[in-house]
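Lab manual, section 2.4: Encoding a predicted structure.

Procedure: take the sequence of the chain (310 residues), apply the prediction step described in section 2.3, and record the output as structure tokens. A sample record is shown.
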Amino acid sequence: MIEGDRIYLNTLKNQCKEENFYSAGAPVLDRKSGNILSVLTKNTYGSTIDKQCFDDAPCEVKNGQPEWSPETQYGAPVDSLGSCFSEGVFTTSSNSCTFESTFKVTGLDNRSRYKVVSPTAEKTNLRAYFSLSTPYYRFKTVRDPMQCSLPNGYSNSSSATDAVIRAPVAQEPGMHFVCIAGIESEAQTLTTERLKSTLILPAQLVKSIPVRVPLEPNYVYFPDKTYGLQFEQELPFNVGIYYYKSPIKDLDCGTIDKKDYSFTNVSITFKAEEFPFTLCSKNMDLSYRISAEVRTDYFKPDGRLTPNIR
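Recorded output:
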């Protein structure tokens, strides 16, 4: 199961009635024995298929393709927790209670969570920037994340400080994964135990679709007499805004050069004396593409929004 940058290799799913978005943390019981089978963690309630595999919209992977399951709960199995209890108290001091990873990630920027395939190129690069607590690492790319636990196919060792991966993969739509294993020396072999805590980065390759125009901004008035505009972020389609502000009421935003736009992924602030003005905005998606269409909004002195999409 995948949600955002997180991979869950071992989950139990159910579609029990009367569960909802707030059921996370509840136990799932075996009807006959009454034993706890899992603890609910993620669900797809309130989400839609176009957001699959991203935040609050977990998906499954089958044959290299994302699969959406509506109104579904996912739980983390608890069968391995028995060795972590001593006289009814949870503890990780037991040698058989192994939850600690063999390395820690001290910095991560997965640039390939969402990529649009090119109709002309045979391959595309999956890019990631990171640092690990171990001095070295090895990596490989796979279509099935379960293969990350197998030692075959991993690269030679490289420094894990300010590391950069550019891994070419076939331009095949669907899910691809980068497996990263931290190691203590250049010559260290990848043991079964070490591969249990492999860092797995998902990359979703999709066919080219137009970038959506920005959603209507939320208008906010602050106590210091400044105003703010916040554009809703909706992964993977809306992650940042390029904007241009002008006092000209009938401005044709299509004539503004792209170099005159400013970028924000937070909000646009302005003062009362700047009313009225026209705001031109373009949307950036998670693949760093910019919308061809531009949104035009006119803000009156009373702060009301007159939208006019062009």
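Check your result against the sample. The helical segments are 192-195.
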